[in-house]
Amino acid sequence: MLGSCRYKSIESILKHRLDQQPLEEQQELALPDTHDNIRGPAYYY
């Protein structure tokens, strides 16, 4: 149902007050500090 823009979907969301529900917590991705493909600031000088 999420991501849908059809009339019936929107009508159901509003009828069941799903638009007033709190958003789910999203986990932050831990990115690596170094990687073989990351050039770094020294590459550009």
Automatic annotation (TrEMBL):
It comes from the Bacteria. The lineage of its organism: Bacteria, Pseudomonadati, Pseudomonadota, Gammaproteobacteria, Oceanospirillales. This is Mobile element protein. Residues 24-45 are annotated as: Disordered. It comes from Alloalcanivorax marinus.
